[in-house]
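Changelog note: in this version the structure field was regenerated for every chain. One regenerated record is shown below for reference.
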Amino acid sequence: MSRFSFKAPIAILLIGMVAGASIAIAAQPHMVNALNSLQAARAELERATANKGGHRDRAISLVDQAIKETREGMAFAD
């Protein structure tokens, strides 16, 4: 079996997975928007000064949890 005949099905599978994920994401625009907003909020919290009595760190942890839950919700809906 040539290298091409082995790699072609794998490449086709990967392309199909990416296309499928794109369709699933497109079907959940509000979840995608929420995920983007959460990621932006996390980035802003990271940039903030750390002297917030532990509240900044707790907020980052909670945003991480929200990002995880949002991703899991999107995966569940697929």
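Spot check on this record: Residues 3-26 form the longest helix (24 residues). Helices lie at 3-26, 29-47, 55-77.
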